[in-house]
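Task card 7
Instruction: Convert sequence to structure tokens.
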Amino acid sequence: MIRLTYGQRNIFIGTAVLCTLLFFGTAAGAAPSVTAVNTSSSENTVPVYPAVPTQTSDPKSTANPTLPSQSSPASTQIPVTVEPVAGDTKSSEITKPNVTSSPGSSTPVTPGPASGSTSGTTQNQTPGNSPTVPLPAQTLPNGQNPAEKPTPPIPEIVRPPKGGTLILHISDNTFTFTAGEALTQLESGKWSYRPAISPKEATEEANNFVNWVPDGSFRLREGAVDRIAKAFLDAKDAEMTIPSWRVIADTLIPLTHVSVSGGQNSSTALSKIDGLVLPPKALFSFNRDVGPRTEETGFISGNVLQGNQYVREVGGGICFASTIVHQAVAQTGFEILEHHHHSIRAPYVEPGGDATVYYGVFDYRFRNGDYDLLFEKRETPEALGLRLWQAVE
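Output:
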């Protein structure tokens, strides 16, 4: 209930009756302004409330009413004192609409939230038109926006390394290299190589290739590794011959019919010529290249055949080494300049296949061909031998 003081009279009316009086007053064209005074407050004067606008036939209409100007001459000020009645909870819930309009303007103004209200929504919301409540932001891993579809990763394109085809002639072999990810043997005579980015890397790759080749296939000469490394570094189409040696003779004879001292002295003699390089057309002399047979040069006492009997001398049994040299040279076709046989058949080779030597008396000599000749000693626990390599330019 609300008590209205009109002049000297106190009128108690309900809120519904108050709204009805204000409604008909507006419809009649005289929209008196009333002053509401709240006796429970220390401030008895409150802003003037305009008349309630006419309700349209459409209860769902959200059109804002047209408020009359406060400066209209038809407006009258009616002092009203509003006091809540004890026990009436509805009267204390009346709120003053926050309506503003400029003087002399009939522009519709949308009422704002009630004074002192903590709600952020307007009071003239229509049914079915609920306020928009912001949703909490969604988060996805890697900072992706949920409104956007994740972009699939771009697959890495593997491109073959750039590099030319290399054809290397090494000894009697031909090796074809194509650019690849690593140094790998694809099949017999065909390899892949990784183009080097530095001289050091190229040299390492060249050495790896040489070490992977089976022993005995070829032997490189001085400067060969540098040439292969340069080809890996340039990585251009090229065909070249690598300085190398090719085997032209290879022999290995068992020690079955050789004495222990004879085997040791023969091994010492072959060690003297191991690694010897004989220039083109040069003469080979066993006595000259092996040297005198003395204890100082590493020889021991052994059996020496004199006539039809054996005697002990330092270097005895060295004829097994000279026979090995002859067996190898016989495979080359080189010109043999001096060759002597034993007075009796040597048991370790076929008849006529031996070669006896005696320092200062009998020698074994031959002349080299048109290319450098390299001597390589071969030795196993059961045999001794010699391999001859010819230079490939």
